[in-house]
Design the sequence.
């Protein structure tokens, strides 16, 4: 039997991010940036108005109040996109729209609300004095030319794409999303839409594993159900390995006479099968077929999903170029007692709560590896060390968070 760390280290040592590729801007959403992006221009590229109003010289309106307003002649109008405006003549104002370039000589904008409003004539009455620079967006106030606006390693969100577009980038180098092929093995499985017969069940692992890989940003495809037939398993594995960057299988890796995945891969690839000191998910396999990494996970639904968390998730994040793969982890006090197998690390489906200012963790239902409903409502995996055989109420445990959102009790 090997440790969790030994098996995970073997998996991580065999995967790497694909080479960077250059893609159009919108295709980069959700991917990791593979280059530093330097802005070739300043933002804003020119002084522009933050308000609809009047461009003025602030010094000429010093002391203006509602009780002592001042009237200025309005010489023209500047709209956004109207080109370079003429210089502002002393003692005058220019009507200006939001985003329009500020005329040379003007150093402030008086909002419409500080005046008598838009006038049909050629004069404006100002009731409040602006400060120099007020309501003027200065050129370069956001980004300087030559400034690094995004560093390699950033996962590109919509706001990042907006910034890249603002500095004129229509394409960027990114780490491409790995292609993941998911296969469910077992003659007892039936697809959704077909009523299971006696002794049959719907395939849940295929959907859970495909969704888990997609949630991380991988291009995961569900390859359907493969019956316990050596020829069918071999063909499915070879096809998946030829078209994907990583293959996930579930089922067929224990010690039964129908564990066909184990039988086929023993001859087909370099997959090594081990018992890992953990519960659930002790039978694990990892290796390669035709150079493509292959994870073989247990068939029980909870074992399959917990195995994904502990081993596949770190590997996929490494392939995506993420420097860290650990789930957020908190400490919590056990809200109940339970037993744990000697010599195996236990991952307990649990929920977190707060009482009397302290965070508590409580197991969800029984811990059988077939109980998918319990896993669905869990918000964390409580981790019980290998040397602990009994958790008592009040014992402190590490808890790996599964759900997003606020953590009960806040940071610890």
Sequence:
């Amino acid at each position: 039997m090997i440790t969790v760390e030994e098996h995970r280290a073997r998996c991580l040592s065999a995967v790497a991010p694909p080479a960077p590729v250059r893609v159009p801007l919108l295709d980069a959403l959700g991917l990791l940036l593979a280059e530093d992006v330097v802005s070739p221009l300043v933002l804003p590229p020119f002084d522009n108005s933050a308000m609809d109003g009047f461009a003025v010289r602030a010094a000429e309106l010093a002391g203006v109040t509602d009780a002592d307003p001042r009237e200025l002649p309005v010489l023209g109008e500047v709209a956004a996109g109207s080109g370079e405006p003429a210089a502002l003549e002393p003692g005058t104002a220019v009507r200006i729209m939001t985003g329009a370039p500020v005329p040379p000589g003007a150093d402030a904008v008086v909002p419409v609300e500080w005046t008598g409003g838009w006038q049909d004539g050629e004069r404006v009455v100002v009731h409040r004095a602006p400060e120099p620079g007020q309501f003027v967006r200065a050129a370069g106030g956001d980004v300087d030319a030559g400034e690094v606006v995004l560093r390699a390693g950033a996962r590109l969100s919509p706001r990042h794409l907006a910034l890249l577009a603002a500095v004129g980038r229509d394409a960027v180098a990114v780490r491409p999303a790995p292609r993941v092929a998911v296969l469910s093995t077992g003659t007892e499985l039936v697809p959704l839409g077909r009523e299971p017969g006696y002794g049959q069940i719907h395939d849940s692992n295929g959907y859970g594993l495909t969704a888990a890989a997609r949630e991380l940003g991988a291009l995961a495809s569900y390859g359907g159900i493969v019956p316990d037939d050596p020829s069918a398993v071999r063909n499915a594995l070879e096809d998946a390995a030829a078209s994907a960057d990583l293959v996930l299988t579930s089922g067929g890796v224990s010690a039964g006479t129908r564990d066909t995945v184990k039988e086929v891969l023993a001859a087909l690839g370099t997959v090594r099968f081990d018992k890992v000191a953990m519960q659930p998910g002790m039978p694990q396999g990892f290796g390669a077929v035709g150079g493509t990494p292959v994870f073989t996970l247990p068939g029980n639904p909870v074992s399959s999903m917990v195995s994904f968390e502990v081993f596949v998730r770190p590997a996929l994040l490494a392939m995506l170029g993420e420097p860290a793969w650990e789930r957020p982890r908190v400490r919590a006090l056990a809200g109940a007692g339970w037993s744990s197998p000697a010599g195996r690390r236990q991952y307990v489906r649990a929920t977190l709560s707060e009482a009397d200012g302290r965070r508590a963790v409580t197991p969800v239902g029984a811990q059988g590896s077939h109980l998918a409903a319990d896993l669905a409502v869990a918000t964390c995996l409580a981790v019980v060390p290998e040397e602990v055989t009994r958790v008592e109420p009040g014992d402190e445990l590490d808890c790996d968070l599964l759900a997003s959102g606020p953590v009960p009790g806040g940071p610890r």
